[in-house]
Amino acid sequence: MSELTAAVPRGTSQTHSALVLVEKELRDLWLSGRGLVFLLAQSVLLSGITYLIATNQELNFLEQREALSLLVQVTVAVGGLLVVLTAADAVSGERERGTLETLLLTPASRRWIVAANGVATLSLWLAAFLLAMPYLWWIGRDIDTFGSAAVGTFVAGTMLALIVTGLGLLVSTFTQSNSVSIGLTFFTLLALYAPSQLPAEASRGWAGELLLRLDPFTAGLTYLDRLVIGAHPLTQDASLLVVPALLAVLLPALALAAAGRLSLLPRWAVR
Length: 271
Hints:
Largest sheet: none
Structural class: mainly alpha
Strand content: under 5%
Order of helices and strands: HHHHHHHHHHHH
Radius of gyration: 20 Å
């Protein structure tokens, strides 16, 4: 961390300081091998699912769509998990390792410190999405929804990644223990993801429809399900993405606002 303060001397502009911080966070994530390990685990998972699907020669047209939908949902779910593990470690991890003080001594503002972590975190989702594309193409090459499935996965998945990034950064900023931050954020992710696994009958009626539209993961995955299996146009179910889009803006904005009070200890621990 001492190299960081040397690379960002006093008097350096905020813009340059921010770029140095973003570069530092990206290096820490990718050159350390942590990001590559995450992607390797995703590759093994997608390879196993694709192999099982590809060896079944009796899939009909609808089952091919369902197989593609499964890969799309796995991509989004795994991408969200990777983002959670990184975002929840962003501030509390630096604080617990004793490196946050060095970051706070740089000319960059506290908001840029958190924003740099957010950029590095989102790079994981982008890498996970690009890694999944060959698998999605292989399964969906014989059906006409691959293009829209790829676009829909990127749009909906990016919204959900932004939501989880904002949530993880918020929890990490106000948490002293890194393990508590990761555990709390991971539990929240499971709680958001769980309603999407309810049977179709549970989503009927006004209560089910309300849950479908208010829970961002349920709304996003339902949108992708209708897009791939139902072969709906990209805009037909766009109303399902209203809440995910709003939260994708709100939660990162709250994380940046909270970063203004970032300190060596979480706010509740400062006397």
